Amino acid sequence: MADLHPTDTTTQDRRPSGSTAHDTRVADVAGRDLREAGAAAAAIAAEHLAGLGERPVWRPVPDDERAWLSGQELPERGRALDELLEDARTRVLPYPMGNGHPRFFGWVNSPPNPAGVLVEPLAAALNPSCAGGDHAGPHLERAVVRWLAELAGFPHLPGGGLLTSGASMATVICLATARQQAALADGWDAREEGLSGRPPMVMYVTEEGHSCLQKAAQLLGLGARQVHTVPVDGAYRMDVGALRTMIKEDLERGLRPFCVAGSAGTVNSGAVDPLGEIADVAAEHGLWFHVDGAYGALGVLADGAAPHYAGLDRADSLALDPHKWLGVPVGCGCALLRDPGAARAAFSLVPSYLIDDNAGDLGWFSEYGPEQTRPFRALKTWATLSHLGRSGVTRLVNHTAGLARTLAAMVEEADDFELLAPVTTSITAFRHLPGPHDRLDAVNRAIPGAVQARGNAFITGTRLGGRDALRACFLHPDTTERDLAVLLDEIRLAAKTL
Ligand SMILES: Cc1ncc(COP(=O)(O)O)c(C=O)c1O
Q1: Is 277 a pocket residue for ligand 1 (Cβ < 6 Å)?
Q2: pLDDT tens-digit map of 292-323
């Protein structure tokens, strides 16, 4: 690579005295050094992504590299772009989490869509705050949010949603909106008065509901005790009869049921709750109906899946994560709200220094959530969706959902595996039965770590129905059926070492 910080003879030198040679004006760095280093960075990123399949899925960070990564001193003198790039190439990229690899099946983490990767530097180059205003970012966000609602089959009015850091923050926005709406319906204002002295506001989730629902309830001052756990049926879906009974009993006790949160794709098994029946109960009792579709909302696009999602369009709010199934580079979540005005009522607070007379009817995005300065998440989401198109998203969802079903069939055929839940989305929950064993839970709990350490596949575990389980989540477009056979063999081999 050429010298990226040559002595500049053409531009006026505006460096403060005593600074390093490359410590210069943004325009100069960008026009000269960044052009060259940026091309090199693009080549490194492409090489990294293209070669992932040939490398271990994951490997532990060696002690010396960990010490370097976490123990560095803040440099006194600034460093040149090409030096930084070399460090990133040799000391950062070799230690990925693993989710770019086609045999990564852990948690719910996808590979990055190449179009999303492509435009990330452009978002950084523009570096806007998408709080609001008349610039590309907020306008593009309006389109992207509308596209996401359309894909998921959720009704959309202008202003009815915003991008977030992830589904956890989307959930905070949706539940804060629900809380304020319930308070206003009861004739008081939770934002103004706080919750003290009011009847406890109760929310209903199943034990399969994601922890972000509980965290949001805690953060919003509702209290973990007011998150009531609804039992599930044999397929890990909400038992709606039990929900009805619980609401009745809570009303009799003087509590204030205000929200029920269903899942469209649980993290443990990918189950989709009976959304239509939950919508009926919510309507009967005037509850806010929230759906956590962070992972699974787009599963509705899979062939034959639509009946499982019937009722999603009746939700008051939906959290979904473009950084999951779609592969938008982390982080990008989305809160979708049936009534845009409700979210604005829960969050809008415009001080004099932020009044924008040209903001139009919808105002600023920062009036619909807690973030003021907001990154340009829409660009990578727009690029990913535009690159895939509706047909590409549908293909991806069908391909990965098909892999989950195929793995389930392989598991059912094998004597040494057991399927633990039906497959509804792209997650297969199962466990290994390595011969007569009195420690099945302990073995299955230890298997993920042992598989990960071998580097040929990556799987994570959970507890399902009181048993230690393995779960494989499929999100990668390049995963093949051959990779499923490798996974089962890796589990067998890893179990032998335990
Ligand atoms: C079903 C489900 N809901 C919510 C979340 C939280 O989303 P995030 O990690 O984007 O905040 C996850 C994350 O994996 C999830 O799988």
Answers
A1: no
A2: 999 999 999 999 999 999 999 999 999 999 99
Distance CA 152, CA 325 (A): 12
Structure tokens, 465: 């129905």
Contact 116, 376 (CB under 8 A): no
Q: What CA–CA distance (Å, rounded) separates 339 from 289? A: 12
* Whole-angstrom distance, CA of residue 235 vs CA of residue 320: 22
Instruction: Using the mean position of ligand 1's atoms as its centre, give its distance from the Cα of residue 109 in Å.
Output: 10
In angstroms, the Cα distances linking 182 to 185, 206, 312, 450 are 5, 21, 21, 48
Query: What pLDDT digit, counting tens, does each position of 359-391 carry?
Result: 999 999 999 999 999 999 999 999 999 999 999
Q: Does the beta carbon of 294 lie inside 6 Å of ligand 1?
A: yes
H-state helical runs in 7-135:
26-28, 35-51, 63-71, 81-87, 114-126
Which of 148-151's residues contact partners 24+ apart within 8 Å by CB, and which partners? 148/320, 148/322, 148/334, 148/336, 148/381, 148/385, 149/318, 149/336, 151/298, 151/301, 151/390, 151/393
CA distance linking residue 255 with residue 239, whole number of Å: 21
DSSP code, position 437: -
- 325 compared with 9, residue with greater pLDDT: 325
* 8-state DSSP, 238: B
pTM of the model: 0.94
Residue 167 beta carbon below 6 angstroms from any ligand 1 atom:
yes
Q: Which two tokens stand for residue 46?
A: 């492409």
* Paired tokens of 157: 């009015």
